[in-house]
Amino acid sequence: MDEPVTVVGIGAEGWSGLADPSRDALRAADIVLGGPRQLDLLDASVAATRRAWPSPLVPALPGILDELAGQRICVLASGNPMFFGIGTTLARVVGAERLRVLPHPSSVSLACARLGWAVENVELVSVVGRPLARLRRSLAPGARVLVLSAGAGSPVQIAELVAAQGFGRSPMTVLERLGEAGERIVTGTAGTWSATSDALNVVALDCVADPGARLLGETPGLPDDAYDSDGQLTKREVRAVTLAHLAPRPGELLWDVGGGAGSVGIEWMRAHRTCRAITLESRPDRAERITANAASLGVPELRVVTGTAPEALHDLPRPDVVFVGGGLTGDGVLETCWDALSGGGRLVANAVTVQTEAVLAAAHERYGGHLVRLQVSRAEPVGHFHGWRTSMPVTIWNVERAKQ
Does one domain contain both 33 and 124? Predict the structure, then answer.
């Protein structure tokens, strides 16, 4: 059996903060892998060869471990290795059964200890190798947010985004070099932030909305004007019902075929932080608009593919759920979407025209499922009074593929 890989969490204070099991593991190692800063924290009693990670790391990792087969390997990680750390990557590469993990308190635990915040009530956002725009969806009155910074420039960028979202009054704290003798805590507000920061920092936000700030909820059915669109948009009430039929579950992948303004894919991803979506849109201008909408609504990881169904669907990862909001009358579109689903997969399609309704009626006859017709009326001014203006009806087909 291969030697176990020991992963040791180490804090900014270095060797002095390690418990005896971590020190013993490092002293017993033949080779220690880690970042240059982490390797420099080791005591002289560690006789192992020290080797810095290459960049990029993940593609090189299997080859490095194969090269070092048979040796006692120790890997250094910042704080808790299983918290946005190398430990989770190693678990995928070598298998959890081969790992021995010796954690250290994470920067989040240390920050909450300094602030007196309950860890379980904190919203956590990492911008290390991730878009800053994902912070937007965590901003809400009364929310406490910890942001894992990407470097010295992150606090200013975070403050600018928070202020632009209408939360400039929010108290903001930057905690630098947590656990070190030179630890520093700087406080202020997001709207007036100008302090320079150390590269090792965590940003804490105690969210306070500015007067007049526009606040968006997490439930499906965001206001239509939350989206930039050219009119090609699944309207609010229809969108809410459509998302209810799609029934997002954590970790699932959605195909949103015929994206328009991207609203269905965006609100699918807002349903849970692990939900994923790929939106297919044939027009490049709309595809660009979808990308901008996704960033402005806090889900910049939405993948947008410019192309036409069904051809552009063939090389995409297999979905758990498919929504078809456009292109239903195209040859092979519905069949391709259906064939892409595994047993238990779900498909929802919306139709407005007589022709697309006919496609759904035939699909219902062939595959089963449920048909729903939805019509929305809105009160609009009629002179000095109001009257009901009725929108075109939308037919929704919802079906689940039988498990094999």
Answer: no
